[in-house]
From TrEMBL:
Leader sequence segment: none
GO annotations of cellular component type: cytoplasm
Protein name per its UniProtKB record: Putative short chain dehydrogenase
A Pfam family: adh_short
InterPro entries, per database record: Fungal_SecMetab_SDRs, NAD(P)-bd_dom_sf, SDR_fam
Amino acid sequence: MTVEKKKVWVVGANGGLGLALCQHLVAQGHQVTALSRSPSTALQQLQGRHSGQMATVVGDICQPGSQAIPQLSALFARCGLPDWTLNASGLLHAAGADKMPEKRLSQLTPSFLAANIQANTYTSIAIAQFLDPLYTREDPFRLVCLSAMVGSIGDNRAGGWYSYRMSKAALNMFVKTLSIEWQRRYPFACVAAIHPGTTDTPLSAPFQHSISREKLYSPALSAQRICHVLSALTPTDSGNFFHWDGTILPW
């Protein structure tokens, strides 16, 4: 079956899952713009192997003065707007004992909560704000944000991980709210959240000891699953939270 070629913007492209998404997309013949906050040798090597099919931009979409913004604007003006945008960026832990998912209320700190909100919620907001004025009412574009099942309030039975859960729940609310506005302005668009499953990347590395091997997925497999769900989305799916298998998750 012939795959319809798309222009795809991947944000967080130098992460374990972001890189796998870029690799999968170029292998499928799509045109990829990869955005990362820092230079990536792996991305540069991938672009070198697919020079006519891939562009890389370095910068932070959340910073108004970032050089990435005019670079992206010029690139999209020259090559066309993204048919699909994938936000694969995120934060679960960082260096330091006080920058790990909290097990108890007493471990919550303003700084780590703010860092989670910035990385896991605001990045998607900044992406949408960048894209918002670029499209016309007739454009059939898609925006997918990688969320997590632990951000589901209805599915929360274990507790803990306060900052990560709250930031992903806030992301889910943003996706739902944006879908309502965009349905009025862009009736052929679709914005959705996807839970990719626990993927074998540095993001999940400190917590893999509690995950059975059959539930720890390779980045390549997760990328394939995400793209399968993305490719099947229609405007009627806008505002939903999807499992990697395409089923709808509770908010």
